[in-house]
Amino acid sequence: MDMISDFDLTGSNTFGLKSSARRAVIVDDPEMLPALAHESAASGLPLRILGGGSNVVLNERLEAIVALMRIGGRQVVRRTESETIVTAGAGENWHDFVSWTVAEGVPGLENLAGIPGTVGAAPIQNIGAYGAQLSDFFLSLEAFDLKDGVVRTFDAAACRFAYRQSHFKAEPGRHVILSVTLALPTVWRAKRDYAGLDLLPEQASAQEVLDHVVALRASKLPDWRTLGNAGSFFHNPVVSAEKAAEIAGAPRYPQPDGTVKLSAGWLIEQCGLKGFRLGPAGTYARHALVLVNHGGATSTDIAALANHTRDKVRERFGVELVQEPIAF
Ligand SMILES: Cc1cc2nc3c(=O)[nH]c(=O)nc-3n(C[C@H](O)[C@H](O)[C@H](O)COP(=O)(O)OP(=O)(O)OC[C@H]3O[C@@H](n4cnc5c(N)ncnc54)[C@H](O)[C@@H]3O)c2cc1C
């Protein structure tokens, strides 16, 4: 196994945060996992799993072995009258995988186009966008259990998916996802019941929906290649109906259990923090929910801005914001 010492991770996270790891290894074969688990135990260095680095806040120095997930492969497994089963290796780029399914004549995932990162990370927070989420299509995944040293298969129930949540977030670092298998419906209709997508004609093709979603995303979010970011930095908070009623003018999204989801971006904007800057970190001028790296920021700079934002929202509205990207 080729281990690289003092590996520079600055180019391996979409925030572009300055970071390095004691050791790093490119994982392109599931068979590498047992040896890697052994190496981690023998060296006393924890194993950290990194996909596309689009949902992490990396510390300046990681005293760890960082596994850069590059396991490839994608396949149409079978087509039945009701569904088409597709599978992909954890290291496949998510957007490329979505584009490939549409090109193969297997629509369904187009609303999730343009989300950065890898297939293997998609179940971690049950990625979602434009009225769809991974769990709508999920069949199973294979993961290496670092604790017990075996490969396990998880079905949807075992993954315990919820809004930006899964079983894997509850037990971080235990399972290395190797591949993901999805079931896409054979009878397909464009899902247009989401703001912005309603502009599409009823008979829009999956490719047209995909292109439209990519264009919408580009108009709202900064391109991480030119302005480092990790997408939405805070979850939209879910509060009691009474609490929501106290906040005048807030957009409210009632939930089936009687609670109300609020817009974290709106709350931040009301605190005057849209386009705010604190050192090299800032909030995006066009979308207050996105924290950005104006150049040379470290995790300390992002943490300072995140704390400032959380404090202002708590003081003004009594609402606690929870960070979405995982710190490590
Ligand atoms: C501009 C931008 C827009 C975004 N828009 C959205 C959006 O619309 N919807 C959405 O849901 N998310 C969005 N995100 C967040 C991010 O793209 C997703 O969370 C994505 O799934 C992260 O994939 P990744 O490969 O980059 O994961 P990483 O950032 O590398 O890792 C994230 C977490 O998953 C773990 N992990 C990664 N791969 C594996 C694996 N194979 N096995 C086990 N654990 C693993 C890591 O250890 C880490 O804890 C956005 C991010 C950006 C930068």
UniProtKB/TrEMBL annotation:
The gene is murB. The keyword Cell division applies. One of its GO terms (molecular function) is FAD binding. HAMAP family: MurB. Its cofactor is FAD. GO terms for cellular component: cytosol. Pathway: Cell wall biogenesis; peptidoglycan biosynthesis. This is UDP-N-acetylenolpyruvoylglucosamine reductase. GO terms for biological process: cell division; cell wall organization; peptidoglycan biosynthetic process; regulation of cell shape. It is an enzyme of class 1 (oxidoreductase). It comes from Martelella mediterranea DSM 17316. Residues 17-187 form the FAD-binding PCMH-type domain. It holds the Pfam family FAD_binding_4. Coiled coil: none annotated.
